[in-house]
Amino acid sequence: MVAPNSEAPSNPRIVSSTQESPSAAEARHSADLYIRTSWIDAALALSELEKGNIEGGRTSLWIRAWLQEQLFILGCFLQGDAGKVLFVAILVLSTFCVGLKSAQIHSRVDQLWVQEGGRLEAELKYTAEALGEADSSTHQLIIQTAKDPDVSLLHAGALLEHLKVVHAATRVTVHMYDIEWRLKDLCYSPSIPNFEAYHIEKIFENIIPCAIITPLDCFWEGSKLLGPDYPIYVPNLKQKLQWTHLNPQEVLEEVKQLKFQFPYGTVEAYMKRAGITSAYMKKPCLDPNDAHCPKTAPNKKSRHVPDVAAELSHGCYGFAAAYMHWPEQLIVGGATRNSTSVLRSAKALQTVVQLMGEREMYEYWADHYKVHHVGWTQEKAAVVLDSWQRKFAAEVRKMTTSGKVSAAYSFYPFSSSTLNDILGKFSELSLKNIILGYVFMLVYVSVTLMQWSDPVRSQAGVGIAGVMLLSITVAAGLGFCALLGIPFNASSTQIVPFLALGLGVQDMFLLAHTYVEQAGDVPREERTGLVLKKSGLSVLLASLCNVLAFLAAALLPIPALRVFCLQAAILLLFNLGSMLIVFPAMISLDLRRRSAARSDVLCCIMPENPVPKRRVTDRTRNRGSNTKNSWKDATRQPLDPEETGDESKVSCISLSLTKWAKNHYAPFIMRPSMKVTSMLALIAVILASVWGATKVRDGLDLTDIVPENTDEHQFLYRQEKYFGFYNMYAVTKGDFEYPTNQRLLYEYHDQFVRIPNIIKNDNGGLTKFWLTLFRDWLLDLQAVFDKEVESGCITQEYWCKNASDEAILAYKLMVQTGHVDTPIDKSLITADRASGHRLVGKDGIINTDAFYNYLSAWATNDALAYGASQGNLKPQPKKWTHSSSDMDLEIPKSSPLIYTQLPFYLAGLSDTESIKALITSVRELCLKFEAKGLSNFPSGIPFLFWEQYLYLRTSLSLALACALSAVFVAVMVLLLNVWAAVLVTLALAVLVLQLLGTMALLGIKLSAIPAVLLVLAIGRGVHFTVHLCLGFVTSIGCKRRRASLALESVLAPVVHGAVAAALAASMLATSEFGFVARLFLKLLLALIVLGFVDGLLFFPVVLAILGPAAEVRPLEHGERLPTPSPVRSPVWARRGAGAGGAAERTRCKGPPRAAPSLTTITEEPPSWHSSAPSVQSSMQSILVQPELVVETTTYNGSDSTSGRSTPTSKTTHTGAITTKVTATANIKVEVVTPSDRKTRRSYHYYDRRRDRDDDRDRDRDRDRDRDRDRERSRERDRRDRHRDEREHRASPRENGRDSGHESDSSRH
């Protein structure tokens, strides 16, 4: 059995024959060392440059020689300590994997697409500081459509079906924390005035319904949604209070007649300002035959079905008509109109249930006894809201599927919590897809690297180990990102794992391809070093280009793009470390398996392959003969191709692709006709891509990121198609004196009427905002006050008992000065209306001095108007409840405002272009008033989702420019070839342009995620171009020849890497998100195909025509390096057996290894040097067979006695005897060239290690010989004693003592 640490000398798969046929020179001159010298051994090329045999760039060769030297030293170290390196690497990578536990996933829009450091981020931060982190409100929506797309829903039957579903959904309850939660506990309700009587306040609290925006509010049936679930009993009233038969005006008149102690004036004013009159009692009934349809309904007596289209035109009104106007665009979708703008048909109906936000719900219930026992927190409020919304959606689905509603209609529920779930799920890591992708990768790699006919040289095990290493590396890289605090998002989970796998596998194939093509006569201890020396630079160059490109793109402020680029750069660095450190250690372990002649994959289970009988070479058969064919070229290098009489049959797919590229593909595309065709095709593709890039539209609809065949997807699709409705707010900030700048606020509000997408009221104007409602309330109080001053109920000093509550409130407001030192001044009250003190001046400006005193009174005593204004004033105005019996005139002054809202409704926003136009116009308006001193900004869904598209193309262009610049710099620095860097950069730019054109062809819109893939295109394209460019520059010959050689060297790994990346990306097709398959999968596959075509068709042709000059240009031969002189070989100690071997080792131990031997012939002066490791470590010899002829002549006696010998004399002598002896000797001459210290420095590590191994072997042999000699000595002594004892027993004993004494003496 062969030792695992020694090369099997008799294994024909590993050791090549030493025979070289006469055609060896031609084969050798076509080897990589002669035609790709700077790629194989840049130091050799540099030495030839110093000798003047070649031309080239000295600096680039020096840099590459130094890098190759370091990589060779690294490889030798890894081969010697492969097990230790592998153990430590797996331990470190596993440690980093633990960091995945601390990963943070960002799925909110503001976390992904809001520009860091931009205005939108500052605005959101300001809003969060003013309002809190949580949203102010949430919405639960239902959309109804007909299954027949041509059917209109503007008829009573459709609305009655709508009523069934909405009524059932709003009645659901959830039981949590020992509390039964109903819609009334969660919904947003209009505010009510504060009453001193607790029972009256409870009656109003129960009777005021939830705010439900629905088309049913145009009809009496809308009252069925308002409840209350349990009718309210009021003593002395005729019937219980319920909105289905409640007429607020009649109830108030009935209460008045009871003469209760009740603030009737306050309630009447409250109802008047809110527009609360008859509520639903005078609205038409959808079903006039309903027994509960009131008699006051206009169609009760006629029993006619109402004209639904006419009723829904211009919107509907709730029970408080002044504040509850539902625009038509909000409740009716897909509408068509007649010539008078009256609705003719509609395709969809929508109902919106307004719920409190989690912060509002927490604050609403925080002081209530109902939640004191549960430890009420904002998190629990969020859980209750989420649970109720889920049950709401489940009830809608139940109604639809149970047959309780007509099968002709479809209902689609939706909630903000559902959207958050979808975005969160979209950002989660799909383990199924990743596992399937990596399994397919394992299968492909094992099949590709398997050699069925030669299991010893097969590399399937190395490939499987490499894929598993990459999987651990990706996990470790993501864990390291999590430890650095880099958040995860959809791109991190959907793209990055497959990107890192695809790029890493391509590097792995490149190293494995170099390993399998390695010549068999390379010493085993140098093989890993040579693999890294040849291919490590390509891996390093491509990886550094990718890393620099992604780091440059990470400078952009878009969070999703920045996070993706940072994570991709970190993972590529981890992959680079694994491919240059850990994977070569795996190759070293596989080399030991091959040395032991064990089969691949199952090397530990299957026995050693039988080593075939070694074939006797021609050199052995011809030893001692004088034939002229028994010679060997002394200039043969260890990296030269093996000459073994017949070619070995290799079934490796990589080698098959290499041969196909060499023999068929490269000659085919290098034909002149193919060059012309390829260039014309490239020009056509570029022109088509430019045209397609101009057709790419911006946008990313919510329907794109929601799984298909779900209710949420159907809802979003129909809402976008039929409604396009959004709300927005114009926010005013602090650092602005509101009391003195009221006119600027009015002007600011009025300017929004010019925005075309803002919904106007029935008069074509805008709805009132908080300052307008505030002013109207003060004007109403002023009118009442003036009236009662004229009647004498109110004087300057007091008010009479018969003064109304509103007049008394106005009196208290009139005496406010707004000054802290003198808050009250009764002298302000005068009867002069023209020039006297007024709450609101003639110009419509509220009294500036007492502005914040008035604000406290308005927010508390006109709560319905304050809530309906949606002003959301911050800080909240101080509470002050008016009571006519309270004689304290002072009203607390509220704090200056720092945040207010002006609400608007938007419609007609069905595509990204219209939304961008809206954002642009609103932003221009805001900037205009910013210049006037009003700090303001817009807020709402359109600005949060779509403002990114205003600067997306600029940011993307900058990112691509940074990435391309980084690649240009990296290639130029490592190759020191500007033209090569320019060609690579242009090729990558063309690839990005082609991908943009493909997006237009596939109908994919440009958003942040495709922008990430466009940046990724540069990283993928680097592997298709940089390897080829490096092979082209480092080859020798004309441009056509160098392009062919470059294709031959990189085609196999590039093809395998592309196929492997395509297999990994194909796993995205199994995602439940159709968006992943439509966008990610299509673009990734398109990127791989485009990169494959560009890198293996267009780019080689461009290099063959416009490629840069070669680094090495020989002066003697145009297409190869001149044959270099061999270098000095070290003198190795020969190992023999027995004592002779020990003696020989003793003799060889004397002179140092570097001393020249007697057989050394110096061919060159010591100025030439080479650092090729394979050359230094190989025995270069010449087999010399000199023929020696010895002629001896014997003369007669006279000559002999004279003592003369004249062998050169030409005189003939008779009697002379001539003897001729011919001798032939086989002399092995080692031809070496002394190397200097500079040449040997890169192998100092290896020489020192080899010396250490030799010393250890000699010490071990010496100890073994010593032990053997000692054992032999003991054995000899034992035999002597045994012989003496035997002789002593056999001798006769005479005379006792004397004979015994004599015997002992003779024995001794």
Automatic annotation (TrEMBL):
An example Gene Ontology molecular-function term: hedgehog family protein binding
Membrane topology: Multi-pass membrane protein
Top-level taxon of origin: Eukaryota
Cellular location(s): Membrane
Domain SSD: from-to ranges: 430-589
Record-level GO BP terms: negative regulation of smoothened signaling pathway
Transmembrane intervals: 435-452, 464-488, 494-516, 537-556, 568-589, 676-694, 956-976, 983-1002, 1008-1033, 1045-1068, 1080-1106
Keywords annotated in UniProt: Glycoprotein, Membrane, Transmembrane, Transmembrane helix
GO CC annotation, single: plasma membrane
Residue spans of biased composition, Polar residues class: 7-22
Region of interest called Disordered, as start-end residue ranges on this chain: 1-25, 613-646, 1117-1175, 1194-1217, 1233-1308
Record's compositionally biased regions (Basic and acidic residues): 1244-1308
Pfam families referenced in this protein's UniProt entry, alphabetically: Sterol-sensing
Family: Belongs to the patched family.
Protein name per its UniProtKB record: SSD domain-containing protein
